[in-house]
TrEMBL record:
Top-level division of the source organism's lineage: Eukaryota
Protein name, as recorded: Uncharacterized protein
Length: 1407
C-alpha cells in the first residue's frame, strides 16, 4: 500500500484535480479509514489560509461524492416526489459507519459558517467580478456566475457533502445509517443561522434548496421536532426562572399556592389541553419559519421547480397555524400567475407549463389557503387575460375540491358571476371550456349528496331559462353550456336542470303560435343537453370528480416518494362539513356519485309523450330533421344505457313496492313506487315499441337521396341502436354479451334490416319510364332516371349495411340474406326469359360486385375490431362462393352468367382468401382437398353437373388445346376460375397441403411439380384464353409455394428447373420475333415473383436469381447486335422493364408474402436485400461511367436517341425502382453514395424513375431536419446534465446513450452520415432546383405524379435548408411556379395544390 500522506499532499498542492486513485482503492479494500484521512488532513483543515482549508474540505467532500453519489434534483418531477438516490457500493456501510456519518455531519455543519465567511470576504475583495445587469448576454452572465462560485468553493463542497450525508437513512440494504434526529437539526440550524440565499448566485442557491429537498424527503418526522437556537435559549431561560421562583417560595406560600391550585384544577387542565392542542397545530414551527425566511424572494425557474415540490410536501403534511399558513401563502401566491418565457439559449429546458403545473400543485395542496386564495383567484380572473386567465381557471379547477364545500359556499355568488361572464361572453373557445369545467367543479363541490339543491343552482337555472326564451340566439347556446355543467355535476342538479329545461322547451315546441323556424334550435338544444346526460351514463367512471367530506374513520395514508425510500404520512379528515371558510378546514376527499337514469330521478319521464311527438314531427320535417336526428340519438342512448345498467345491473335504485299481483309483476312494464305521492316508472326510458317506431323513421332516411350530412346523422343515430358505440362487448373481442343478444340487436333485426334489405332487389330489371299514378312518390325520388334511382338505392343500402351490421346477431342474418341476393342476382337467365340489354347486364354485374364488396368490408371491419365470430362463416361460405362462380360457367352452347365474369371472380377470390384465413389448419386442409378434387380432377359437389365428366379441367387448358381459336371465350372463363383456387393456396398455411400432380409423397417434389405445372399454365397458353387475372394468380401461387415449401438450400430439381426456365423463356427469346417481347416481359415478372418468395426468407438462391438479371440483362442492355430496328427497340424496352421489375422484389405492401398467409418472413430481410442490391447497382453504374456517359440533355432524352441507351440508364432506373421501399436506416447510411445517382435519375426518360427520385430527396430532407432538431435537443439535455451534476455524469450519460444506439440499428456507425444529410442536399442545391423546375412542367416524361413529387421536393428544400443557401434561387422558383401552363396554372388540380403550397413556403422565406 502506498503512503496515503504522499497522495494527500499531492492533492493539496494541486497535482491531482480529482481524488487520487490510491486513496479510493485503499478505502475500498479497507486498508485506510476515514479517521486516518481526517488525521492526515488535520493541519490543513485548521490552516489559517482560506485556500488551504478550502482544498482540505474539498478533499473530504469529494470522497463523500464518490462513495455516496446522489442523482441531481429533477427540476421537472411531480410535486410530492423526490428523486431517489443511487444505490451506493456494497462496501459503503463499512466505510461510513453511523458514528462516521454523525461526525462528518457535525463537521460540515460547523464548517458552513467558515464557508459563508470566506464567500463574503471574496465578494468584498478585488478578485470578485463586477455585477452585470439581467439583460446582459447569457454567456457573460455565466462567466460572472462561475467566477463567483470559485470564491465559494468551500461552501459548495459543504453543501454537496451534507446532501450526500442526508441520504444516509438506511432505508435500503446498502444504504449507510447514522443521519438521524440530531443530525437533521444540526444541518437545519446551520442553514438557517448562517445562510442568506440572496447573497449567493443561482447555482449555489440550487445546492441549498436541493439539500432542503433531501431533508424533507428523507427526514420529515425528524424536522417536526426541530427547535432553533433562539427557541432553545428562551426555553432554558424560562425553565431557569421557574426553578429560581420555586426555590424562593416559603412553606406557607407553597401551602397557599397548593390550595389555590386545587380550587382551580379544572381550569388548569383545560389550559393544559388547549396548550397541547396549540402545540400540535404548530408542530415544526421553527423549521417552517426558517424555511420561509431562507427561500423568500427566489426568482430562478430551476430553483423554483425544486421549492414548489418542497412546498407541497410541507403544506400537505405539516399542520400550520394561521400565521404560518399566511406566510406560506405569501411566498407561493406571489408567483401567480406565472408569465415566464424561457430565453432562446436556455440550457435547462424548463418551460412555462412546467412552472405552472408545479405552482398549481402547491396552491391546491391545502384547504387552509381557501380564505386567501379565493379573493386572489377572483381578482386575477376579472383582471387577467390570455394565458394568465387560462392558468387562473385551471388553478381554480384544481383548488375547488381541496378547499372544500364551506369555502365554496362562502364564495359561490362571486364565483358564479365571474364564470358566467367567461361563459356567456367568452373571447375564445378554450376559455369557455375551462370556465365550464370550473363551474362543473364548483357545483359538484357544493351539491354532491345534497338534495334538493338550494341557493346557487336554482339561480343558475333561472338565468339560463331567461336566455333560452330565444333559443336561436348566441346566448342560448351559452345557457345550454351552463345547464350541461349542472347535468355533469351531481344527481340533484342534473334533475333540476333537465326538468326545468324540458318543461320550458316542450311548451315552446308545442305552442301553435310559435314560429316554425324556432323548432330547429329547440330540438338541437334538447339533443345537445340529452347527449351530455347520455355521456354521463355512458362513462360513469370518467365523470366529474368532486369533493366530499367523509365521516369519522381511520386517517388516510398518502404515500410520498422520498429520496431513498417511501415514507408515509397520515392526514386526518374532518367530519364537520360546514366548518367556516377560514383556515381550520381539513383536507377534502375526492369522490364521485354513482349516476344512472334511475338514480338521477328519471327527469325525462314527465315529458315522454311531448318528446316522442316532437321527435316524430322532426324526423318527417325537412327543415329541422338533423336536429331531430341528434335528439333521437341522445334519447335512444339514454334508454339503451339504462338497459345495460340500472335497475337490472349494478346501478340499481330501491323503490317502495306497491301491491301488485304476480301477473303485473311478470309483465314488468310498470313497477311502481311512491315518491311524493306519485307513481314512478322504472325500466328503460323508451319501450321497445317506441324505439322501433322512431327507428323505422330514421332507417328510411338511409335509403333516400337526402344528402350526405343528413345520411351521416341517420347512420350515427342507428349506430346507437346497433350497440357498436355504447355498451356492446364486441368491440373488445367478445361475441356473446352486450349488443349481440340485447334489445338493440332485436331492433336492428326487426326494424332496420327489413328497411335496408327491401331496397335490394333479387335482380335489377328493366325500369318503366312512367310511374303509376296510384304510387306515392317518396321524398328524393323522381329526380333521377329509373335505373339510376334503383342503383342509387342499392348503393346507399349496401353502404349502410356495411357500417351498421357488425354485431353477431345481425351479422349472421346479413350474411345469409346478402349471399342469397348474390346468388339470385348471378343466376343465369332461363330459356323462356326475355334477353337482357347490355345496360341491365352491367347493372346486375355492378350489383353483384357491390354485395361482394359489402361482405368484404364487413369481414375486414370485424377482423380489425377483434371479433371472434368469423370462423363459423369460414367453414361454409368458401364452398358457396366456389359453387356460385362455377355455376355461372356455361358450355360451348350456353352463355356464361355474370358470376363467371372476370371482375366478379377476382372479387370472390379476395373474399375467399379472407375467409380461409379465419379457419384453423384442419379445416383449411379439408377445404383444400375439396378444391383439389374440383379444380384438378374435375369432380365433386363443387363442380356443376354440366361440367362434369372431364369438361372442367382449368389447370390443363394451355396453348396446345386445339379448340382455343373456336371456343376461347368459354375456355378463358374456365381458366379464370383458377383464381379461386389460387386465393385458397395463397391464404392457407403450410399444413393445409398442396394439389398433387405427381405420385410422390415427398412434399418438396409435390411443390416442384406444382411450380412446373403453374409455370406452363401461366406462360404457355394462347393469348386468346389468357387474362391478367390468370397471370396475377399464377404469380401469387408461384411466390407463396416457393416460400412455404421449397427448403433451404434449394433442391437440385428446383434450381435446374429455374435455369431451364431462364434459358428458354428469357434469354432464349432474345432474338426471336417482335411478338415474343410480351412473353419475355411476362416471364421476367414471373421470375421476379419467384425471387420475391425466396427473398423474404433470406435465401441464397434469391441472390443468384437477381445476379442473372444483372449479368444477362442489365450488362447487355447497351449492346446492339440485333439486325432489326424493331428488335433493338424491343430489347431496350425489355431492359428498362427488367430494371423496373426490381420493385416487385423490394415491395412489401402487396399482402401476398405475409405471416398472415402462413409464409416464412425472416427478420430484417429487407436490410439484407438492400445491403446486397445497392452496392451491386452502384458498382454497375460506376463501371460503365467512363465508357458511355449518360446523356443529361433533356431534349435528347425525350427524343429517345441512343445517347441514353446504355447500362448506366438501366442501373439508374433500377435504383429508382428500389428507392420507395428503402428502410430509413438504409437510406441514411447509403445516401452519400447514392446522391449522384439520385440527381441523374431526375432526368431519366422514365416518369416513375423521376417521381421516385424526387420522393427520396424529399424524405432525405425531412429526415435530415429531424436529425438536426434531435441533435440540438440532445445537446440541450447534456448541458442541463452538466449544470446539474458536473461533466462526469454528463459524459456517463452520453456514453450510455451511445452504447444503446450501437445495439439498435448500429446508429453510431451512421451518425456521421446522418448529420450531413442537409449539407448533402445543400451541396447539390443548384442542380436539384434546376431539374425539379424542369420536371413540374408538362412534358413527355413528366406525368402527374412526377410533377407533384418535384413540387414537394422544392417545398421541402425551402422548409429544411437555411435561407442564405436558398436566396439565390428564390426568384427562379417563384417565376417558374407562376409561368403559364405550369405550376399554379397546371390543368391538374392536385398539381395546382402542390404548387400553391410550394409558392407559399418560398414566398415566406426571409432571413
Amino acid at each position: 500500500m502506498a503512503d496515503p500522506s504522499h497522495a494527500i499532499r499531492a492533492y493539496m498542492v494541486g497535482s491531482f484535480q480529482e481524488l487520487p486513485p490510491s486513496i479510493i482503492q485503499d478505502l475500498e479494500n479497507g486498508s485506510l479509514s476515514l479517521l486516518s484521512i481526517v488525521k492526515l488532513l488535520g493541519e490543513s483543515l485548521l490552516d489559517e489560509q482560506d485556500e488551504v482549508r478550502t482544498r482540505a474540505v474539498h478533499f473530504l467532500a469529494d470522497i463523500l461524492a464518490h462513495f455516496l453519489p446522489t442523482n441531481p434534483s429533477n427540476q421537472q418531477r411531480k410535486p410530492l416526489e423526490a428523486t431517489p438516490s443511487q444505490d451506493p457500493p456494497s462496501n459503503t456501510t463499512s466505510i461510513f459507519t453511523p458514528q462516521v456519518v454523525k461526525t462528518l455531519t457535525t463537521f460540515f455543519s460547523e464548517k458552513l459558517s467558515d464557508a459563508v465567511l470566506i464567500a463574503e470576504n471574496f465578494a468584498k475583495s478585488s478578485k470578485a467580478p463586477q455585477p452585470l445587469p439581467a439583460s446582459a448576454p447569457m454567456t457573460k452572465l455565466k462567466e460572472v456566475e462561475q467566477q463567483t462560485i470559485r470564491g465559494s468553493d468551500m461552501l459548495v463542497a459543504c453543501l454537496n457533502a451534507l446532501n450526500c450525508l442526508s441520504a444516509c437513512h438506511g432505508h435500503t440494504p446498502n444504504q449507510p445509517r447514522g443521519f438521524g434526529v440530531v443530525e437533521s437539526h444540526k444541518v437545519s440550524e446551520a442553514l438557517f443561522s448562517n445562510l442568506r440565499t440572496s447573497d449567493h448566485p443561482q447555482s449555489l442557491r440550487f445546492l441549498v434548496y436541493s439539500l432542503l429537498d433531501s431533508l424533507v424527503a428523507h427526514h420529515r418526522s425528524n424536522l417536526k421536532s426541530y427547535k432553533s437556537a433562539a427557541t432553545l435559549a428562551a426555553e432554558a431561560a424560562a425553565m431557569a426562572e421557574d426553578d429560581s421562583d420555586d426555590d424562593a417560595q416559603s412553606p406557607g406560600d407553597q401551602a397557599i399556592t397548593g390550595d389555590k391550585n386545587k380550587e382551580e384544577g379544572e381550569e388548569a387542565m383545560e389550559k393544559k389541553k388547549g396548550s397541547k392542542k396549540e402545540d400540535k397545530a404548530c408542530v415544526g414551527k421553527d423549521f417552517l419559519k426558517g424555511y420561509v425566511k431562507l427561500v423568500s424572494g427566489e426568482k430562478d425557474p430551476r430553483n423554483l421547480m425544486v421549492l414548489f415540490g418542497v412546498d407541497k410536501v410541507l403544506l400537505t403534511e405539516w399542520e400550520m397555524d394561521t400565521e404560518l399558513t399566511e406566510a406560506f401563502f405569501d411566498i407561493t401566491y406571489c408567483y401567480f400567475p406565472i408569465s415566464f418565457r424561457p430565453p432562446p439559449d436556455d440550457p435547462y429546458g424548463i418551460t412555462s407549463d412546467d412552472l405552472k403545473l408545479a405552482l398549481r400543485g402547491v396552491l391546491s395542496s391545502t384547504p387552509s389557503f381557501a380564505p386567501y386564495g379565493y379573493p386572489l383567484l377572483l381578482e386575477k380572473l376579472s383582471a387577467a387575460g390570455g394565458p394568465a386567465k387560462l392558468d387562473t381557471l385551471r388553478t381554480l379547477i384544481a383548488s375547488l375540491p381541496v378547499y372544500g364545500r364551506a369555502a365554496a359556499k362562502a364564495n359561490s355568488k362571486s364565483l358564479w358571476e365571474a364564470l358566467k361572464i367567461e361563459i356567456f361572453h367568452a373571447t375564445d373557445e378554450e376559455t369557455s371550456q375551462l370556465s365550464c369545467r370550473a363551474l362543473t367543479q364548483l357545483v359538484t363541490v357544493m351539491y354532491e349528496g345534497v338534495d334538493p339543491p338550494e341557493g346557487l343552482a336554482p339561480m343558475m337555472v333561472n338565468d339560463c331559462l331567461i336566455e333560452l326564451e330565444e333559443p336561436g340566439k348566441s346566448l342560448a347556446k351559452a345557457a345550454l353550456k351552463v345547464l350541461a355543467c349542472l347535468v355533469k355535476a351531481t344527481r340533484s342538479t342534473a334533475y333540476l336542470a333537465i326538468y326545468a329545461f324540458m318543461d320550458q322547451m316542450m311548451k315552446m315546441f308545442t305552442d301553435p303560435e310559435i314560429d316554425l323556424a324556432v323548432r330547429a334550435p329547440i330540438l338541437a338544444g334538447v339533443g345537445e343537453l340529452l347527449a351530455v346526460l347520455a355521456a354521463v351514463y355512458r362513462n360513469p367512471e370518467g365523470g366529474q370528480s368532486s369533493s366530499k367530506e367523509v365521516t369519522q374513520g381511520p386517517p388516510q395514508t398518502v404515500k410520498l416518494v422520498g429520496g431513498g425510500g417511501v415514507d408515509s404520512i397520515s392526514v386526518q379528515t374532518n367530519t364537520n362539513s360546514d366548518v367556516g371558510s377560514g383556515g381550520g378546514l381539513q383536507a377534502s376527499v375526492v369522490s364521485k356519485e354513482e349516476r344512472s337514469y334511475d338514480l338521477d330521478g328519471r327527469p325525462l319521464d314527465p315529458f315522454l309523450s311531448e318528446l316522442l311527438t316532437s321527435l316524430s314531427n322532426g324526423l318527417r320535417s325537412t327543415s329541422y330533421r338533423r336536429s331531430a336526428l341528434h335528439a333521437f340519438s341522445s334519447v335512444v342512448s339514454i334508454s339503451i344505457l339504462f338497459s345495460t345498467s340500472s335497475p337490472h345491473g349494478s346501478s340499481s335504485v330501491e323503490v317502495e313496492a306497491m301491491d301488485l299481483d304476480e301477473e303485473e309483476r311478470a309483465q314488468g312494464d310498470q313497477v311502481g313506487g311512491k315518491e311524493d305521492g306519485k307513481t314512478r316508472k322504472t325500466g328503460p326510458f323508451l319501450s321497445n315499441e317506441e324505439i322501433s317506431f322512431l327507428t323505422h323513421n330514421v332507417s328510411e332516411m338511409l335509403t333516400l337521396p337526402l344528402g350526405d350530412e343528413v345520411r351521416e346523422e341517420a347512420l350515427c343515430a342507428i349506430e346507437v341502436i346497433s350497440n357498436e358505440r355504447f355498451g356492446g362487448g364486441l368491440t373488445q373481442g367478445a361475441c356473446g354479451a352486450g349488443g349481440a343478444g340485447g334489445e338493440g340487436g332485436k331492433t336492428m333485426e326487426k326494424v332496420v334490416l327489413p328497411v335496408l334489405l327491401e331496397c335490394l332487389p333479387d335482380r335489377i330489371l328493366p325500369q318503366r319510364e312512367e310511374r303509376s299514378s296510384d304510387v306515392t312518390m317518396q321524398e328524393g325520388e323522381g329526380t333521377q332516371p329509373g335505373l339510376e334511382a334503383v342503383k342509387g338505392k342499392i348503393r346507399r343500402s349496401l353502404g349502410a349495411i356495411s357500417r351498421l351490421c357488425l354485431i353477431p346477431q345481425v351479422f349472421d342474418i346479413v350474411v345469409v340474406r346478402l349471399f342469397t341476393k348474390l346468388e339470385l342476382c348471378c343466376n343465369k337467365k332461363s330459356e323462356g326469359e326475355e334477353e337482357e340489354s347490355e345496360e341491365i347486364k352491367e347493372a346486375n354485374k355492378g350489383y353483384a360486385r357491390g354485395i361482394i364488396l359489402t361482405l368484404q368490408t364487413l369481414l375486414d371491419e370485424k377482423k380489425a375490431r377483434g371479433h371472434r365470430d368469423l370462423a363459423r362463416h369460414g367453414q361454409n361460405l368458401p364452398q358457396r362462393i366456389v359453387k356460385l362462380v362455377l355455376s355461372g360457367l356455361g358450355d360451348q352452347v350456353t352463355q356464361a352468367g355474370i358470376s363467371a365474369s372476370q371482375e366478379i371472380v377476382a372479387d370472390c377470390s379476395k373474399l375467399l382468401a379472407t375467409l380461409v384465413r379465419t379457419i384453423d389448419k384442419n379445416r383449411q386442409r379439408g377445404l383444400m382437398e375439396m378444391l383439389e378434387k374440383a379444380f384438378v380432377k374435375g369432380e365433386g359437389d363443387l363442380v356443376p353437373s354440366h361440367l362434369r365428366g372431364g369438361k372442367f379441367r382449368p389447370l390443363e387448358l394451355s396453348a396446345s388445346t386445339e379448340e382455343a381459336d373456336d371456343d376461347y371465350g368459354w375456355m378463358k372463363s374456365i381458366r379464370d376460375t383458377v383464381a379461386l383456387y389460387g386465393a385458397a393456396i395463397v391464404a392457407s398455411c403450410k399444413g393445409a397441403g398442396l394439389p398433387r400432380f405427381t405420385n410422390s409423397d415427398d412434399e418438396t417434389e409435390i411443390a416442384v411439380e406444382l411450380i412446373r405445372r403453374v409455370l406452363g399454365w401461366t406462360l404457355d397458353s394462347s393469348e386468346k384464353i389468357r387474362s391478367e387475372l390468370q397471370i396475377r394468380t399464377g404469380k401469387m401461387i408461384l411466390c407463396t409455394v416457393v416460400n412455404k415449401f421449397i427448403p433451404e438450400p434449394a433442391p437440385v430439381g428446383f434450381t435446374a428447373m429455374l435455369s431451364k426456365f431462364w434459358e428458354e423463356k428469357i434469354v432464349g427469346l432474345e432474338k426471336a420475333t417482335t411478338s415474343s417481347y410480351s412473353k419475355r416481359i411476362m416471364a421476367l415478372q414471373v421470375w421476379m415473383w419467384i425471387a420475391k418468395g425466396l427473398v423474404v426468407r433470406s435465401s441464397k438462391e434469391a441472390e443468384r436469381m437477381l445476379e442473372k438479371v444483372r449479368s444477362d440483362v442489365f450488362e447487355r442492355s447497351g449492346e446492339s447486335n440485333q439486325d432489326d430496328d424493331d428488335q433493338r427497340e424491343d430489347a431496350w424496352k425489355f431492359s428498362k422493364e427488367a430494371a423496373r421489375s426490381l420493385e416487385i422484389v423490394a415491395r412489401s405492401d402487396d399482402g401476398v408474402v405475409s405471416k398472415e398467409n402462413g409464409c416464412i418472413v425472416r427478420l430484417l430481410y429487407k436490410q439484407r436485400l438492400f445491403s446486397y442490391l445497392l452496392p451491386l447497382v452502384i458498382q454497375g453504374y460506376r463501371s460503365h461511367q467512363s465508357k458511355t456517359p449518360t446523356s443529361t440533355d433533356q431534349d435528347e432524352l425525350e427524343s429517345g436517341v441512343s445517347g441514353g441507351r446504355n447500362p448506366q440508364t438501366i442501373y439508374l432506373i433500377s435504383l429508382s425502382s428500389l428507392l420507395p421501399s428503402l428502410p430509413p436506416t438504409t437510406l441514411t447510411s447509403q445516401l452519400s453514395s447514392l446522391f449522384p445517382l439520385l440527381i441523374q435519375s431526375l432526368s431519366l426518360p422514365d416518369p416513375k424513375a423521376r417521381s421516385y427520385s424526387s420522393n427520396t430527396l424529399t424524405i432525405s430532407l425531412e429526415l435530415g431536419k429531424k436529425i438536426r432538431d434531435d441533435r440540438i435537443e440532445k445537446e440541450k439535455e447534456r448541458e442541463v446534465a452538466i449544470k446539474l451534476s458536473g461533466r462526469r455524469v454528463a459524459d456517463q450519460l452520453a456514453s450510455s446513450t451511445s452504447t444503446s444506439d450501437e445495439v439498435e440499428n448500429q446508429k453510431p456507425l451512421q451518425q456521421q452520415e446522418e448529420v450531413d444529410l442537409l449539407a448533402l442536399n445543400e451541396s447539390h442545391l443548384g442542380t436539384i432546383i434546376k431539374r425539379c423546375n424542369q420536371n413540374f412542367e408538362k412534358a413527355r416524361f413528366n406525368s402527374t405524379s412526377t410533377r407533384v413529387s418535384s413540387l414537394r421536393t422544392l417545398t421541402s428544400l425551402a422548409r429544411c435548408l437555411p435561407y442564405q443557401a436558398l436566396r439565390p434561387y428564390k426568384n427562379q422558383v417563384l417565376s417558374g411556379l407562376a409561368s403559364p401552363g405550369r405550376g399554379i396554372d397546371d390543368d391538374k388540380r392536385i398539381v395546382r395544390m402542390a404548387a400553391v403550397d410550394c409558392r407559399d413556403v418560398w414566398y415566406g422565406l426571409e432571413e
